[in-house]
């Protein structure tokens, strides 16, 4: 399974994933619609639910965020993420659906912990106390 992966990334690291769209003849096409989702393969956890692509060109760089690259089960040495892509393009037969998937491995790093997003608490307000 791990040797099917495109590459390895360290946990909590963001990166662009280049997605290319092709027709039934393996020619590049710009889809008329396209969605993607991200799942953890072993636990079947949905990391990102079905989402529309930011643009509809034959090649799109999806930004996979550091928040999407967390380790689901902290005892795992690594986890496999699957990005499932579905699109529709126009062919001589009319609207034609197509699918693909991209897999990558997330390496669990000792010492990297989940840190909540920074936010202002009421006690750290800039307004003076009365």
Descriptive labels:
Immunoglobulin-like; elongated; 130 residues; 45% strand; 5-stranded mixed beta sheet; mainly beta
**What is the CA-atom radius of gyration, in angstroms?**
19 Å
How far from one another are the termini? 61 Å
Number of strands: 7
CATH homology superfamily name: Macroglobulin (MG2) domain
Which overall shape is indicated by the principal axes computed on the Cα atoms? elongated
Estimate the strand proportion: 35-45%
Helix content: under 10%
Low-confidence stretches: 116-130
Strand arrangement across the biggest beta sheet: 1-7-6-3-4
* CATH topology category name: Immunoglobulin-like
Number of domains: 1
- SS-based structural class? mainly beta
Can you name the CATH architecture? Answer: Sandwich
Look at the structure and give the mean pLDDT.
87
Count of helical segments?
0
Order of helices and strands: EEEEEEE
Main sheet makeup: 5 strands, mixed
Structure characterization notes:
The protein has about 130 residues and is mainly β. The chain has a single domain (about 1-110), classed as Macroglobulin (MG2) domain (Immunoglobulin-like). About 0% of the residues lie in helices and about 45% in strands. It has no helices and 7 strands. It has strands spanning about 10, 15-20, 35-40, 45-50, 60-65, 80-90, 95-105. It has a 5-stranded mixed beta sheet with strand order 1-7-6-3-4, with no helix packed on it. β3 and β4 (about 45-50) form a beta hairpin.
